[in-house]
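Fold this sequence, please.
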Amino acid sequence: MFVDQVKVFVKGGDGGNGLVAYRREKYVPMGGPAGGDGGNGGDVVFEVDEGLNTLMDFRYQHHFKAKRGENGMNQKQHGKNSDPFVISVPPGTTVKNAETGRVIADLTEHKQRAVIAKGGRGGRGNARFATARNPAPEIAENGEPGEELDVVVELKLLADVGLVGFPSVGKSTLLSVVSAAKPKVADYHFTTLSPNLGVVESQDHRSFVMADLPGLIEGAHEGIGLGHQFLRHVDRTRLLLHVIDMSGMEGRDPYEDYVTINNELSSYDQRLENRPQIIVANKMDMPDAKEHLEMFKEQVEGDVTIYPISTVTRDGIDDLLYAVADLLDEIPKNEEPVEEVEERVIYKFEKEEAPFKVTRADDGAYVLYGEKIESLFKRTDFSRDQSINRFARQMRGMGVDEALRKRGAKDGDTVRLMDYEFEFVD
């Protein structure tokens, strides 16, 4: 089964917790804090494997979570960092944030990697908080939660040549004739329900990859027929072979077919207007095909290349393959990325960004929220008084007390931060 689009949940591993511990060896003088730091959580990483050509592995598994880091240990021992969770994907995979639609990674080359969900940092142990004023602190940080998000994983096939055209014009038959691919061929529309790839070699031993893309119809760019489901695979092709049925046996006009398909391609992506294209006039062994070809040449505008062929008699196929190979030699392989990858900033708080915001809940409680204050909250160990006092000092330093007073908070009012509630003391 061919799978080319899935939605999955990914989560980086949480960081390990820091430890509160002290040296108590019998014959070692000057004992002190000895709690180690927690290890970092593992990243969720996508890696390209050129042996894959479908997203089938994602069909039955929709959740991917990396392992958390190891907690800190005694004698200032650092917890073990978790290894990254590596997931293999085929070349041509694009990863998008499901919520924003922004592209996280565009993976095209073998062994290319991208971090999709970053693991959390490990918390610091009490050995890191020792000072002259507090030589034996009972403070340790919890590990930071790993990044988690829903992503849409799309596959856009990497092929040199893409076959486009209406259903039943002979695209699959052409691919089966020029390569060892075995696409389904039958006398009805939409025989091809998934793209087929084949390696083609010309008589002078030049080879290239050809993709048979499912038949397009009018309105495909709006999702009619197979629509967007397979139009995306045209994006990465360097050359288009526009296959047209010149026999007219189905009552369609070849020129109208030509115009309709080109309109669908440009409506889907404006850049496809400038994609090199060769017109393949197929089924030339049928009656009236030559007359239709002459009429087509009179109607078509611009400098277009037309190659008449017959996949039954194999006439003209060698000349077509020579022309394709010649044109591919002139077209650069890497023109520009198909998708613009967003620049992601992780664990970085801009100076302009407020560390917290205050709002009022329906029950009258004051609600604190914001990426920075929530991150500090998650790293605080509320089972220890010194950690709670430290968190209170951090909030005061951010200006939380001042902001609450401006919003009208008074002694005894409830302040809520995530799932935690505390009382405001002025």
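The longest strand covers residues 148-155. The chain has three domains: 1-156, 161-330, 357-424.
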